[in-house]
Amino acid sequence: MATVNRPGGADGHVCGIDTAMEVIGGKWKVLILWALHQHPGRRFGELRRLLPGVTEKVLASHLREMEADGVVRRVSYDEVPPRVEYSLTEDGVRLNDALQPLADWGRERAAAPST
C-alpha cells in the first residue's frame, strides 16, 4: 500500500524520517525486517512462526509491499512442491542497520525501572 506523500519538498517529503516511515509503517514491518535479518532466506511459514500473532493475510500483504519498496527479495524456485524464500535486499540490510539504535533504545527503556 503506497502512502500518499504529504506536501513538503519537491518529492512531497519534509525529511528522511517520513520517507522511511512510508516503508516501515505498520505494526509488523519492522518485526519482519528483524526476523529476516536474524533468519535470512526464510519461507513464508517459517516467517509466520517467527512472528507470533501475525495473520497470513497481513504477512503476505506486508511482504508484497516490502518487496515493492525494494527492502525484501522474494525468490521463487521451480520445484514441486513450489518453494519461495524471502530475504533482505541490500537496502533492507541498510534499513535494519539504521533501526538498530531504535532497538537499543527500546531494550534500555524496557529494562529501566518505572517512574
UniProtKB/TrEMBL annotation:
The question of whether tRNA-binding is a record keyword is answered with no
Q: Establish whether keyword Nuclease is in the entry.
A: no
Q: Name one Pfam family in it.
A: HxlR
**Where does the secretion signal sit in this chain?**
none
SUPFAM superfamilies listed in its UniProt record:
Winged helix' DNA-binding domain
| Annotated HTH hxlR-type domain residues | 15-114
Per its UniProt entry, which superkingdom is the organism in?
Answer: Bacteria
Q: Which CDD domains match?
A: HTH_ARSR
Q: Give UniProt keywords alphabetically.
A: DNA-binding, Transcription, Transcription regulation
Q: What is this protein called?
A: Helix-turn-helix transcriptional regulator
List the source organism: Streptomyces nigra
